Amino acid sequence: MPEYICPHCKKPIYDDEALLCLYCGETLNRGIGFMGKIKYPSPRVIVILAAIITLLGFLMLMIRRN
To answer: Between the N and C ends of the chain, which has fewer C-beta atoms within 10 Å?
Structure first.
């Protein structure tokens, strides 16, 4: 099991999906990268994905009509 070191208290965390440190309660800053943003989405990411899907649907509708 991989070990992750808390950036605040420097104690090891063995839980792969923990978002907060078990000892000090601070955030572990794990939502980094594209896959992390999909796994732990923020409202901004959800709105952007919804807008892209809506635009693609509209474009497909316009192409199909012609």
So the answer is: C
Token couple for 23: 């000892």
For residue 36, give the nearest of 60, 19, 21 by alpha carbon.
19
Q: Label residue 20 left, alpha or beta by phi (over 0 means left) and psi (-120 to 50 means alpha).
A: beta
pLDDT in tens, 4-51: 888 889 999 888 878 888 899 888 877 666 666 666 667 887 888 899
In 1-66, which residue ranges form alpha helices assigned H by DSSP? Answer: 34-39, 43-65
Residue 47 phi, psi (nearest 5): -65, -40
